[in-house]
Amino acid sequence: MCEVRPNQLIFLFLVGAVVLSCLFERFGLMLRTMTPMHVAQRTPQAKGPTGRRLESVHRRPALASRTVLVRSRSAIPRSQFLNELQGAATLARDHPTCDGSNPQVNLVFVKTHKTGSTTLSHIINRFGYTRGLSFAINKKSVHNGHLGYIPLGKDSPRETFLPPIGVSKYAITKFKYNLMTVHVRYDRAAIDSFMKSPTRYVTILRDPGFQFESAFSHFQFDDAFLTQEKKVYSTATSRLARFLDAASFYRERLKHLNWEGQKGLRWYYAKNNQMYDLGLDHTYHTDQEVVDAYIRKLEAELDLVLITEYYDESLLLLKSMMCWDTDDVLYVAKNMRPPTSADTVPESLRARMRKWNAVDAKLHAHFNRSLWERIERYGPAFQSDLAKFREELESVFQSCVGDLKISSQGRFRYSNYRVRAGSGVNCTLIAESKSSLFSSIWGQQAQRRSIN
């Protein structure tokens, strides 16, 4: 009799699972051809100085599972969608001459996942909080205000947002906001409808060879593994490599698993998530003509795209564009991955991550070039300004930061610096956790709204 080894059993099981997955996918495609234009999908309810690792947001598990409608562009005929993209006009960017008395206060930060976006949102949140500005935030989420993949529309202010400062909850037509820094999928027309004018739009992108590594750890894509596989592949790097061996298969398995109370949520995070966050449905990610047109659209609409790998350089450009002071863009890194959670990843594996996330890689490369073109236009003073900024950052770090605290909440582990004891209010605002500052923002806006 032929002896069957355990690894052969695993292989046979995987083959069978792939066949079943293909059958489910074919059946799903048949169903999708009969769906209305707005397709019901499972989506979420709300969802350092140079040399210090940056990570993005820690998120609280949702209280209950719910289905949310996602506005899908894939229901629009391809030719119509391409015409819309090609017809996107370059928006006027009348950046003022900064004289120290006219800082710009209206800003949308399209918050991407695992890109250092929590640190950037903290910078903007601090600016708005100390000036009593109004934030577009989810009134049901005191923890972080995220909107996640909830589709935005004309009823969003009434149904979802906390009223602006000084505005009654009944005065819906007056719901206009200065700042938006929460996770939300980019939809320019919808966001314009509730922001004050003029508003600047920015986002941040990260090399997917690093972003996907962080996402893999944070969102625990290895939940798609079989129990035996988790025993065989015991390190973070070996699990990441194993996932990429059969990435499409494991991503399909994630479609059937829960995350934050939502079935299939991690399917969105597991490939080209940065482009998806910026509004392009996964359906179009294999269509190079559409991808190129959409990148041109983003180039036309976004005032600045920051790059994680050049964080300080990006912040200098943001400071210049918004006419802010250096103090306004000082920072201490937030929500970092604990040092022990990161293995050494070989460059060959990073190349595989870029290949799997090819659309994000193309997006990042395009706006990385744009960033350096902006730096060139800044002029010869850029390098000296950058050196001064980094000196300020180091001074803040030495004055404001205590030890590193590793925290856990649910499935998540993350680290933040403690505020140095006795360092003062400014240090507290810079170095406190993102959740602490957000709670202050939420409380200020909730308490100062009009009761009439």
TrEMBL record:
Keywords: Glycoprotein, Golgi apparatus, Membrane, Signal-anchor, Transferase, Transmembrane, Transmembrane helix. GO terms for cellular component: Golgi membrane. PROSITE patterns: PROKAR_LIPOPROTEIN (PS51257). Pfam families: Gal-3-0_sulfotr (PF06990). SUPFAM superfamilies: P-loop containing nucleoside triphosphate hydrolases. Coiled coil: none annotated. InterPro entries: Gal-3-0_sulfotransfrase, P-loop_NTPase. One of its GO terms (molecular function) is galactosylceramide sulfotransferase activity. It comes from the Eukaryota. It is found in: Golgi apparatus membrane. Belongs to the galactose-3-O-sulfotransferase family. This is Uncharacterized protein.
